[in-house]
Amino acid sequence: MKAAQINSYGSEDVLQLSADAPKPVAGAGEVLVEVYAAGVNPFDIKVREGKLQEVKQLQFPATLGGDLAGIVSEIGEGVMEFKVGDAVFGQANALGGQGSYAEFTTLKAEALAPKPNSLDFINAAGAPLVGVSAYQALVDHAGLKKGQKILIHGGAGGIGTFAIQLAKHLGAYVATTASAGDAEYVKNLGADEVIDYKTQAFEKLIKDYDVVYDTVGGETFVRSHEVLKQGGILVTMAGKPDDELAKQYSIKVIGQVTKVINEKLAKLAELLDKGVVKVNIDKVFPLDQAGEAQAYLKAGQHRGKVVLKIK
Ligand SMILES: NC(=O)c1ccc[n+]([C@@H]2O[C@H](COP(=O)([O-])OP(=O)(O)OC[C@H]3O[C@@H](n4cnc5c(N)ncnc54)[C@H](OP(=O)(O)O)[C@@H]3O)[C@@H](O)[C@H]2O)c1
What we know:
The chain is of the alpha/beta class. It has 2 domains: about 5-125 and about 280-310, Quinone Oxidoreductase, Chain A, domain 1 (Alpha-Beta Complex); about 130-255, NAD(P)-binding Rossmann-like Domain (Rossmann fold, 3-Layer(aba) Sandwich). Helix content is about 30%, strand content about 30%. It is built from 10 helices and 16 strands. The chain has helices at about 40-50, 120-125, 130-140, 160-170, 185-190, 200-205, 220-225, 245-250, 260-275, 290-300; strands at about 5, 15-20, 30-40, 60-65, 65-75, 85-90, 105-110, 110-115, 150, 175-180, 195, 210-215, 230-235, 250-255, 280-285, 305-310. Strands 3, 5, 6, 7, 8, 15 and 16 form a 7-stranded mixed beta sheet that branches. Strands 11-10-9-12-13-14 form a 6-stranded parallel beta sheet, with helices on both faces. It binds NADP nicotinamide-adenine-dinucleotide phosphate. This is Enoyl reductase (ER) domain-containing protein.
């Protein structure tokens, strides 16, 4: 089968199409999916660059990719929830070397759910990691409620696009940071207030917020402490929580690890089918341009999602 693979860690040039990668077989508790489309995430880039070697060393050649939408092709022992021919979306193990940038991949049945009916495969493949991340942060961690104020960093990004829509649906007042060129885009998603992160210091402009959702990390994460009222909640996707700093500001800081599991995917599918949140596909690449797709995502000009069309 065709698969976009790496034989060593490195720049996007190491990500190459193999025409004869072995087709995987579904083990116990697993499902073999024929992948129609694969979402591209910053995490996949970190895997390729070797930045996650401390977590897991890849065996080469390794097929990259996590997010996917496709059709169930084979069922492993003990899997009861799916049958051959089901349309599904979910997340392959992006660190397992048998990822979604391929014609077929295997994944745990628990990381899969029925594809939202109203979405095609391209749009469905753009949803799992970013959609579940936003849901976990705003609903599970922050418990965001009507009338509360939230600052969402990186509003035009993959996660930000979902987070703004979900926060508005929950009835919150939404401020977001984005580049000036993305201001209209984030307003159309529902943002009440847009702060140009390149020319304005957000922590000087807003105060006493209930929640900050940080998808950027670094000094953006550190400065975010100043925006919250006492008892406020800061959820970060990329920052390193510091207990002392959190205590100093009397806030709760959560370093999120997103868990893409069946139950959350099903909630996400419901929101997508009701039209509460929409996927924004920025650009679609063919599988043999997986390296170009990652480079495009890393360059930071996208709004929403970059996806590989495989079938
Ligand atoms: N912890 C976890 O389990 C987990 C799960 C999923 C994702 N993540 C991480 O979460 C992060 C975001 O993911 P994503 O898919 O949303 O990425 P993305 O699509 O690349 O979006 C990032 C957004 O942040 C904006 N940005 C960059 N620097 C900024 C700054 N200083 N202030 C405000 N906005 C800024 C970018 O805007 P420009 O276009 O202007 O550069 C872009 O719109 C990544 O680091 C990813 O690895 C973590």
